[in-house]
Specification:
Blueprint lengths: L3 H27 L4 H15 L4 E8 L4 E6 L5 H7 L9 H9 L3 E3 L12 H6 L4 E8 L5 E9 L7 H32 L9 H14 L5 E9 L2 H8 L1 H18 L5 E6 L2 E9 L2 H16 L9 E8 L7 H17 L5 E3 L2 H6 L1 H9 L9 E10 L5 E12 L3 E3 L1 H11 L2 H23 L4 E6 L1 H5 L3 H12 L6 E6 H5 L3 H13 L2 E7 L6 H6 L4 E4 L1 H4 L6 H16 L3 E4 L5 H10 L3 E2 L10 H12 L1
Bound molecules: ligand C2E and calcium ion (CA) (2 copies).
Length: about 600
């Protein structure tokens, strides 16, 4: 037995050590040491004071209401890892419950406490039986985390344990609060208050370090974005709404860039996007086009556009940050000068080098408004009597420098950048107007088939766009057919399914285009609201010689019949193909043999001849 004097001395030494530990913690807090260091000092100090408990500090993430380990050096690492990310709740262990209720939560024996039942296998492996947990709080009462004492035997806390938990939680509270304040300071010093994006100084520094760290064999793009017509916006909207708009544009830019790209607000209505590791100017152009698209999506009732300048840094001997940004800025002015709402590259050579794809990518947007797009119409016929049923609208682009560009080439690009959404809306409106006017003129109404991209279908407002277009143009809904490619259908999600049903409810017919290229299953065909199927040209071209093709067309027709759908064959080029399709029981036909895509004028002449 030790004598009372020795015991008292030991007690005194323990207490002194605990006090020293607290002093160290306060010093760490004052020096703004990492939070982890403060919490580690806290729990090791407690452990030295009382070796019979294993302390653990966990932090509460207020956004997700989840717990994350702060310090618990004596607990088994697997246990600590397992509680990382636990969502707090009244029945979630002692810490989950303490954080949830804001009150000290004592579990004397986990085996007897329903709050622990779900994770008993874990606590048994970790050899834990008791857990006393105290919430760590801010002065205003907000729970910031918990401090808990674990042990291997069932046990109730002694008064001194409660004191340890109370004192410890108080210091931890100060430490966490300080830490958060520091994080806020750092955030505020590096971010722009209006948009929440990186501020001018920080984006500049990032460009600087990206240029320094860039490997000679990798490209990097500095993209300068400047809103068009800010002054007019300010005049019409007022400063507050313009600020709101700049904030919204910032959010759209941040959402539109790739994961590794960073966006900063460079000043007023100027933004800088730093794209590291772009492959070439083409990829940079794609990013630029995507940004234009993101910005110009109507923000409430105002539409904004931007001019974008890109400086691509490649090869050895890079410019410094100031120069790279100057280059992007000067390219942005070229974009302004050549008509706004577009992307330009720095350096004549760069602009020339970027080539066809880049030119198309960056110029599809606005091409319809510039009058470069027009429609042609290809007739569709009844296969038996040969009656004209209607026409399919097909898009044509006459580019001032590139000449005529095929939709097979530019539609995929427009889909990549999202430009297909406004462009497709233009096609719908233009074709409805044209065919409605033609019907009024000739007294002959025609069915109109319009190609619709998967991107359009995925837009939640698409059915509304169709409804409004029909109302505005006076085109009868019963004559409208939307053609959707099979591959688009295969990637359909819930939003697309909704749109399809809304379209059906409107009374629009839907055709599955390019059938046979996307491997639709029977059950899938049955589930979706399709009116007709268009057999892909590749199968028609093999008729009648190729056995396989005729077997496929036959199977498709059988399947479509079984579900009560109409079958159209496209790409019919020869009489023998037509005859084969007739024999197989196809309903409608389309192809160069029967009629090529023609401008509306030629279509009108044809109808007049038919009437005469
Ligand atoms: P698609 O929807 O399968 O359109 C049929 C294509 O086949 C058209 O090519 C048409 O000119 C061509 N064609 C028609 N009959 C024959 C024939 O007998 N023989 C051959 N060899 N070809 C024939 P086009 O106009 O070049 O369009 C290509 C594709 O571009 C279209 O394929 C469609 O997927 C897309 N496209 C065209 N306009 C639009 C549009 O406004 N919106 C969307 N989203 N896509 C469009
Ligand atoms: Ca089509
Ligand atoms: Ca087709």
């Amino acid at each position: 037995m030790s004598n009372p004097a020795q015991t008292a001395e030991r007690e005194l030494a323990r207490t002194k050590d605990l006090l020293a530990s607290h002093a160290r913690m306060h010093e760490l807090i004052a020096r703004a040491a990492p939070l982890e260091d403060v919490l580690t000092e806290l729990v090791t100090g407690i452990e030295r004071y009382d070796g019979s408990v294993m302390p653990c500090a966990v932090l509460l993430d207020p956004e997700s209401n989840t717990l994350h380990p702060g310090a618990g050096p004596s607990l088994p690492p697997e246990y600590v890892a397992a509680i990382d990310g636990v969502v707090i709740g009244p029945d979630v262990g002692s810490c989950g419950a303490a954080a949830w209720s804001g009150r000290m939560t004592i579990t004397e024996d986990m085996e007897e406490d329903p709050k622990w039942a779900p994770i008993l296998p874990l606590t048994r492996t970790a050899n834990l039986r008791h857990c006393w947990s105290n919430p760590i709080k801010a002065p205003d009462g907000e729970v910031l985390g918990t401090l808990a004492l674990y042990g291997p035997e069932p046990r109730s806390p002694q008064p001194e344990h409660l004191v340890l938990l109370e004192d410890g939680a108080r210091v931890a509270g100060i430490a966490i609060e300080r830490h958060r304040a520091m994080q806020r300071l750092v955030h505020d010093a590096t971010h722009d208050a209006l948009t929440g994006l990186l501020n001018r100084r920080t984006i500049f520094q990032l460009v600087e370090s990206a240029l320094e760290e860039r490997a000679a064999d990798s490209d990097l793009a500095v993209i300068f974005v400047d809103l068009d017509g800010l002054k007019q916006l300010n005049d019409t909207l007022g400063h507050d709404r313009t600020d709101e708009l700049i904030g919204a544009v910032g959010a759209r830019l941040a959402a539109a860039v790739r994961e590794d790209d960073v966006v900063g607000r460079f000043g007023g209505d100027e933004f800088i996007v730093l794209a590291r590791g772009v492959k070439d100017a083409e990829e940079a152009a794609e990013i630029g086009a995507r940004l234009l698209d993101a910005i110009s999506n109507p923000l409430e009732d105002v539409t904004v556009t931007a001019s974008i300048g890109i400086a691509v840094v490649s090869g050895p001997g890079a410019p410094d940050a100031r120069e790279a940004i100057r280059q992007a800025d000067s390219a942005m002015y070229d974009a302004k000068r050549s008509g706004r709402d577009r992307v330009c590259f720095f350096g004549e050579a760069a602009n020339a080098r970027t080539g066809r794809r880049v030119t198309m990518t960056t110029q599809i947007r606005g091409a319809a408004a510039r009058g470069e797009m027009h429609l042609v119409f290809q007739p569709l016929f009844e296969i038996d009597g040969g009656d004209l049923l209607g026409v399919e609208a097909l898009l044509r682009w006459s580019h001032p420098e590139l000449g005529d560009v095929s939709p097979g080439e530019f539609i995929p690009l427009a889909e990549e950048t999202g430009a297909i959404v406004p462009l497709g809306a233009w096609v719908l409106r233009e074709s409805c107007e044209t065919i409605a006017a033609l019907a009024a003129e000739t007294g002959r109404s025609l069915e109109l088939s319009v190609n619709v991209s998967a991107k359009q279908l995925a837009e939640p407002g698409f059915a509304g766009v169709v409804r409004k277009t029909l109302a505005d143009t006076g085109f009868p809904v019963s004559d409208l057919i939307l053609e959707i490619t099979e591959t688009a259908f295969l990637s359909a999600d819930a939003a697309t399914d909704r749109t399809l049903h809304d379209l059906k409810a409107l009374g629009v017919r839907i055709v599955l285009d390019d059938f046979g290229t996307g491997y639709s299953s029977l059950s899938w065909l049955k589930r979706h609201p399709l009116d007709a199927i268009k057999v892909d040209r590749s199968f028609v071209s093999g008729l009648p010689e190729e056995r396989g093709d005729s077997a496929i067309v036959k199977a498709v027709i059988g399947m479509a019949r079984a579900f009560g759908r109409t079958v159209t064959a496209e790409g019919v080029e020869t009489e023998s193909q037509l005859q084969a399709l007739r024999d197989l029981g196809c309903d409608h036909a389309q192809g160069f043999l029967l009629g090529r895509p023609v401008p509306v004028g030629a279509l009108r002449d044809g109808l007049r001849r038919e009437a005469a």
